[in-house]
Amino acid sequence: MSKKTITSFIWSFNSRISTVFFEFLTQLILARILLPSDFGIIAIVMVFISFGRTITNAGLSQALIQKKDITKDEISSVFYFNLLLGIVFTTTIFLTSSFVSEYYSIPQLKNILRVVSIILVINALGIVHDVILTRNLNFKAKFYVNLISILVASSVSISSAIYGVGLWALVIHVILIQTIRVLILWKTTSWKPEKSFKWDAVKELIPFGANILLSSIFTGFRINIFAIILGKAYSAEQLGYYNRSNQLQNMTSKTFTTSLQNVLFPVFSKLQDDIRLLKNGLKKSLTSLFFIITPLMIFFYSNAEEIILVLLTEKWIESATYLKLLCWIGVLYPIQMMNLNALKALNLSKQFLYMTLLWDILSIFSAIVTSVFSIEIMIIGQISITLFCIILNILLNGKFYKYLLKDQFMDLLPFIIINTIYFFALKFSYNYIEVSLYLSIILKGLLAVIIYLFITFILNKSFLIELMKGLKAVVKTNK
């Protein structure tokens, strides 16, 4: 990967990690003030907002990023098209909010949905500006945009919660963060739409965008199926427990994966005519993500109860069981997403669509069928489906970027062995740590880092040296 790509990844990662960190910190503070049911209710609201964002985008932002050359007419036309969809979907949520409130038997949902739905119009105003920064690999600007918006929104929402507004503190947070972000995006890019709309410009992007849109809709169902089911079949409180544990897992696995994915999609798109370079980039991405994410998931799995008690207090202890199971998804997620990213970059939108649809449909079906048993069984179902879809995707589509299943397995095998030894080493060493809760988690964290680096040094010294060289190169480049 070039220096520009590596530097872009660092800024993308900085943006993602800072956003996740401050968002997580905000949620930790709010979790100590508000109730689990409050987080469950806002999770239901965000299901509809998530679908609204997907439809408002219409897959056209990805089409703009993927296309080698774009015109002013295309950018401006996409802007107006996104805005129109945002207005339409906001109106739809406003009109159907009463039905949703009655379905979940939660009276507060009606007004909350109506207020929060304005986000879709606000979001539409910033989609193209975000695309411009992404195409230019200007993740440094995106870092500052995200950091400022999260800091301001978090400060206001925490203050609101302290003053006793309850659930509305979460509503304020959601709306403010998007509003401030869009305002800064407009200021940062200084781009303004032309006073014209050309349907032909949008229509040209639709074939690629439509496949991405359809895929994104089903993916939205997969991601939000637990909120849809748990909010109705169980309770808002149980949904709150699940969401907190899922956020902990996402904080690491999804943060690293999304950061790298955001950078590599435009980079891989430019390498679509050079499969060898694309394959090498994918290999480095997979091994690096597995090296970083898997030990974190093992640490979470081994210390789930203590982590929940330290971060969220005892009233959230039910989340620990869910966190242990979700760690398995955290390990598998990067492998699936990186392979799908390669398909998308090669403009194989149909293959991308078929694989994501299969993953989404099977996951949705599994969640519905297993919901009659327990939340734990629902999560196990998701783990099984994800593993199956990874294997099938690589078997069917690995040939397009010359990276077959056996090759990926052999590249990851050294890290699988390292992490297996690391897991048992942690289990053994933790038996000798008997101190207070907070000191225990600190000591276990430090011990985990030392053990993991030591095992890697012994079994895969060359990778560790290469990684250190890469980090030094990044530091030097940033300086």
Could you describe the 3D structure shown?
By secondary structure, the protein is mainly alpha-helical. It folds into two domains: about 1-235, no CATH class; about 235-479, no CATH class. Helices cover about 85% and strands about 0% of the residues. The protein has helices at about 5-35, 35-55, 60-65, 70-105, 110-115, 120-125, 125-135, 140-160, 170-190, 200-235, 235-270, 275-300, 305-310, 320-345, 350-370, 375-395, 405-430, 435-460, 460-479. The protein is globular, with a radius of gyration of 22 Å. The model has no long low-confidence stretch (mean pLDDT about 85).
**H/E order of the elements?**
HHHHHHHHHHHHHHHHHHH
Distance between the termini: 18 Å
**Uncertain spans:** none
What structural class should be given to the helix and strand makeup?
mainly alpha
Helix content: over 70%
How many structural domains can be distinguished in the coordinates? 2
Main pleated-sheet profile: none
Number of helices: 19
Shape: globular
Number of strands: 0
Return the average pLDDT rounded to an integer.
83
Q: What proportion strand?
A: under 5%
